[in-house]
Design brief:
homodimer; alpha+beta
């Protein structure tokens, strides 16, 4: 695969960034842009990660989701270890170009290193439900997925858990 | 509305954070947690923002989306200026509890300060589409929304544009 650099445009004006067809992404002081990934079919939020310029470039060129792993500080081709590659159906960028939205098809149907389909498998009760559930301002998360799609130990073996406390 | 503080739990172990019902959100060194907001009906990604502890607390208590505005450095009750309040249908938290997912109903059907329904109104061609469209590695964004839902000047008047270059 040729890796001719994609020409990101310099950010020159609000009108250019918001209203033009220029691809002028804003990488933060760590060189990262936020990436939000949803299931292209169900609309479910699968994960939220980050891309550096190379990850965005490779995603665009290959049509497969690449991220930058903050815990491992490396380019991360999602699915390279687990086989759960994310095929990009649509790649969107937001108004001020500091967030990328990936609509993906996931091979195997799972995205979460814990083994669930989505990284978002617990809900927080809100409003009246919070008022009814809370005790002294303390509230319990509610699991919305009860069964894991895969066993992380089988898939990842002894690879370090990416969750940081 | 009583603002008794919600008792966020201290983060003690990966198992607690990933597998328990403890609400133990991870705020970054700026005191912020990423928030991703989708339309509860369509699954469309409406916006990506940030919450501080107070914004998360108020969202949980009121059932209406609150964020922390990084450009203005203030608590931001979404819709307070525009009237486009986001009613939270479901509030989810991810595996390592550093990202909140809001599934919302939006009064008026618009979320973007530029006037579009979603903040994500442009796509980046990927894979074969990128290869066909690029010239010298340069690629044009493609608008997926062609009509604004409202006129930002009418709604926001002279309020400063939140986009930062």
């Amino acid at each position: 695969m040729s890796m001719r650099p994609i020409a990101f445009q310099p950010r020159q004006s609000i009108e250019q960034v918001e209203e033009s067809t220029d691809l002028a992404p804003k990488f933060d002081d760590r060189g990262l842009i936020t990436a939000v990934t949803t299931d292209a079919t169900s609309g479910e939020l699968l994960m939220q990660g980050f891309m550096n310029a190379e990850a965005l470039q490779r995603t665009i060129e290959t049509g497969e989701a690449h991220y930058f792993s903050r815990s491992r500080q490396v380019l991360w081709h999602k699915g390279a270890t687990s086989g759960l590659v994310q095929k990009v159906v649509q790649l969107m960028i937001d108004d001020d170009q500091d967030c990328i939205w990936l609509r993906v098809d996931v091979a195997g149907g799972a995205s979460c290193h814990v083994g669930y389909r989505s990284c978002f498998y617990r809900q927080i009760p809100v409003g009246e439900n919070y008022a009814a559930a809370q005790k002294d301002g303390q509230v319990s998360l509610e699991f919305t997925e009860t069964q894991k799609v895969f066993d992380p130990k089988e898939v990842y073996g002894d690879a370090p858990n990416p969750t940081l406390l």
